[in-house]
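Methods, example record. To illustrate the input and output format used throughout this study, we show the complete record for Sugar ABC transporter substrate-binding protein. The sequence lines were provided to the predictor; the line carrying structure tokens was produced by it.
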Amino acid sequence: MKLRTLTLGLLSASALAFAAHAESITIATVNNGDMVRMQKLTDDFTKANPDITLNWVTLEENVLRERVTTDIATKGGQYDVMTIGTYEVPIWAKQSWLLPLDKLGDDYDAKDIIPAIAGGLSVDGKLYAAPFYGESSFVMYRKDLMDKAGLKMPDAPTWDFIKQAADKMTDRANGVNGVCLRGKAGWGENMAFLTAMSNSFGARWFDENWKPQFDQPEWKKTLQFYVDLMKADGPEGASSNGFNENLALFQQGKCGMWIDATVAASFVSDPKNSTVADKVGYALAPDNGLGKRGNWLWAWSLAIPAGTQKADAAEKFVSWATSKHYAELVASKEGWANVPPGTRSSLYANADYQKAAPFAKMTLDSINAADPTHPTVKPVPYVGVQFVAIPEFQGLGTTVGQLFSAALAGQSSVDDALKQAQDAATAAMTEGGYIK
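The corresponding predicted structure is encoded as:
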């Protein structure tokens, strides 16, 4: 009895010691497919780190941005790891809101991160967020419907070709829309698409003196083309559709073309989830012959807020989720085509990945084609392809997104939406001290 009591006492002491060292970290992330998959694979992490418990807060994109921005700005401390993007990282790092990631481990190989992606997540040569996946945007299209229309998709199409193809592909009687594009309001939803698109039309948010440019003809051409295209060939209720809604439509065979994030390629080509998996082709984002294509540059990344009390455990998780090991884990469970793309050069040199992912080369070409430091045809004072890297953009971009979504829904005219956007941008830039 004494031996049993002693043994139980030792076990209890051991359990208490373990509990004293155990840590629970809270991770805020977006409800995109790759992040959902990551949550299902975290047994691999907890087996190697039994003293760390993971708590997940999974949110829709616009809600995630609002929650993590509020939390970090107010030093709320709700999250130990945040999923943020290329827009937030340089701004927040300069505010000392993020911890530098300098303990990712000897085998992490940060130099393997694609330079264009690493550059957007670094300040003064230090990495402040690790990319979970990187993306540009491109055209995904139904090869069978393109053949039926008697057309051949160029590797580098123009917007005029997209319009021509969409008109021929649209088949309302059979539920096929010629093209699906983002319409849901948000600086990272419809404005990510429309800002990148506007670059190819020669438009810009601001001139060299920070004067808003929505009253210029290039923006009128962009928004009018978009609204006309969507009314003629887009799905019903398009003003409510973001990335996930359009992904579902495309997978169900209801879109002839979809211009959106390159990360979507693994989902539209997955026969388990896509009814058109064997019919998808890929092309670069469209242009207008002005030297800029309508593609963006983004990375959903994992960062650690400076206010966390659990930095070491948080960094262990970030290292695991963005490592080469994690890529191999996904490949072993889901196949190479489903490995999170756009972050590591070694993935694109991997013969197994090249064989499994017919979209690999087009994805890398699209990422490398985007230039955040020279995003527009005319000179601009800002950095960012589908956003403007200033703190005011988050609020302003969403306001403009609401105006443009209303124009798509037919609640206002293109001219009225542009005038209101010009007024809103002028007020924001005056208040921010950019213009007088």
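Annotations derived from this record:
Residues 2-20 have pLDDT under 50 and may be disordered.
Residues 2-21 form the longest helix (20 residues).
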